[in-house]
Amino acid sequence: MRRLLLAVVAVAALAGCGGGSGSSSSGAVTTSATTTNTTTRAGPRKPRRPGRLPAHAAPVGRTQRVRAGSSTLSVTVTRVYGSLTGTGASLLPGTHAAGVQLMIHDDGGATYDSTASGDVSVITSSGMAAPLFIKQGVCQTQLTDFESLIGVGETHAGCVAFAIPGAARVVGVRFSPHSRAPGSVTWR
To answer: Disulfide: which of 35, 83, 103, 134 matches 161 by Cβ 3.0-4.6 Å?
Structure first.
């Protein structure tokens, strides 16, 4: 009986694995997602649909405070570019470039050191989008990441670009400190 129970637990654990995203050296990005209904004490929870924002999403331009480990940050999304042209980016057919400009101020605690392409994400009407390398223009990918070594009292600004499916539109921006979902803040 105990072996049967262990086998069932092992199969259930393996069944939950496998979603995620990755990229190949050719620049193509593949994404797969698994959606399940989960039951909590409050009852069944509906899966989040693409393009849905949390109710507490702030408008673009509003500064939000974020705890990031031992740092406290003030993050402001200053502008969202729904479509960037003349970027020199290698785009897959049926996609276009979009960008997010933001400012990060380290209010206190410790130096913040992370990567913008990991911390910043866009939510589109068809789901999430992949970060994109931009050769030129307003959202040009910087040689040194603007989120590197933000000292206490310093403000760093920059832009992060994304490849967006052609028919999709940007509906929100998420900042997740140290590329983790806990503590993230969202703009609409």
So the answer is: 134
Q: Domains in the chain, ordered, with CATH? A: 66-187 (2.60.40.1240)
Which position has the token pair 């392409």? 117
- Residue 57: both structure tokens together: 């999403």
What three-state secondary structure class fits 76?
strand
Distance CA 21, CA 43 (A): 30
Token pair, residue 120, equals 């910043």
Are β-strands 155-165 and 170-175 bridged in parallel, bridged antiparallel, or unpaired?
A: unpaired
Distance separating alpha carbons of residues 25 and 19, to the nearest angstrom:
20
Alpha carbons 31 and 133: distance in angstroms, whole number = 18
How many residues are present in the chain?
188
38-70 per-position pLDDT tens digit: 333 344 433 344 556 777 789 999 999 999 999
Average pLDDT of the chain, as a whole number:
77
**pLDDT tens-digit readout, 78-97:** 999 999 999 999 999 999 99
Radius of gyration of the chain (CA): 19
Q: What is the DSSP string of 152-182?
A: TT-EEEEEEEEEEETT--EEEEEE-GGG-ST
E strands present in 109-138: 120-124, 127-128, 130-132
